[in-house]
UniProtKB/TrEMBL annotation:
The gene is Mmachc. CDD domains: MMACHC-like. It catalyses: apo-[alkylcobalamin reductase] + an R-cob(III)alamin + glutathione = cob(I)alamin-[alkylcobalamin reductase] + an S-substituted glutathione + H(+); 2 cob(II)alamin-[cyanocobalamin reductase] + 2 hydrogen cyanide + NADP(+) = 2 cyanocob(III)alamin + 2 apo-[cyanocobalamin reductase] + NADPH + H(+); apo-[alkylcobalamin reductase] + adenosylcob(III)alamin + glutathione = S-adenosylglutathione + cob(I)alamin-[alkylcobalamin reductase] + H(+); apo-[alkylcobalamin reductase] + methylcob(III)alamin + glutathione = S-methyl glutathione + cob(I)alamin-[alkylcobalamin reductase] + H(+). Its EC number is 1.16.1.6, 2.5.1.151. This is Cyanocobalamin reductase / alkylcobalamin dealkylase. The keyword Cell membrane does not apply. Belongs to the MMACHC family. GO terms for cellular component: cytoplasm.
């Protein structure tokens, strides 16, 4: 429910819907690259003019509106920002309150070793660890679910030592991706997918055999 999300955030980040409004957090699993992105690129090759992953996600989530022609469906993508440069929604908070993935933050570590250093939090999925992404929100403004019960996310990094290790790896060594394997995972990104996301965004078009269109 939108109210679960708004309840844990400052008013500046609230979603402008009644608290009982139904919402879905959309995650992409490791197989998204092979099952969704590559087929999308092959089919829409000439129409890709911005980030291919963003366009692929937009294409598939927009298809939800066609599945529910009689419902109003609002979509907020993870890459959208407000004029103030703030994100339109805080993806990791949304995933946590929806019970999809646990958002580990500095406050989850009792013996804080970082002093004045800025420490960013990170979501971990009980099945995929850090090998997943939060792609968007689907909101159904005309559907109110006052009796929906909230499910807590799975606390899969449950020891103080592991949480400290997770936040340290994510903040200081995120490029090597070790934080993604903080727990035993069922599936990881393929080598091709890892190479794609390790490549600077401006050079990813070439990896997919695309020509970047510049304005």
């Amino acid at each position: 429910k939108v109210g679960w999300y708004n309840a844990v955030l400052q008013p500046a980040f609230h979603l402008p819907y009644p608290e009982d409004t139904l919402a879905f957090v959309v995650l992409s699993t490791p197989s998204m690259f092979e099952k969704a992105l590559k087929p999308f690129v092959n089919k829409e090759r000439l129409k890709i003019i911005r980030d291919p992953v963003d366009q692929c996600v937009s294409h598939h989530l927009s298809g939800v509106k066609e599945i529910f022609p009689d419902q109003k469906v609002d979509i907020i993508f993870d890459y959208e920002i407000l004029p103030s440069r703030k994100p339109k929604f805080l993806a990791q908070t949304a995933a946590h309150v929806a019970g999809a993935a646990y958002y580990y933050q500095r406050k989850d570590v009792k013996l804080d070793p970082w002093g004045k250093k800025k420490i960013y939090g990170v979501c971990i999925h009980p099945k995929y660890g850090g090998w997943f992404a939060i792609r968007g929100l689907l909101l159904f403004p005309d559907i109110q679910v006052p009796f929906l019960e909230q499910s807590a996310p799975v606390d899969c990094v449950s020891t103080e030592e592991k949480r400290t290790e997770l936040l340290e790896q994510f903040n200081s060594h995120w490029q090597d991706g070790r934080y993604r394997d903080i727990i035993e995972v069922k599936e990881r990104y393929s080598e091709e997918q890892r190479a794609y996301f390790a490549t600077p965004p401006a050079e990813r078009f070439r990896l997919l055999g695309l020509t970047r269109v510049t304005e």
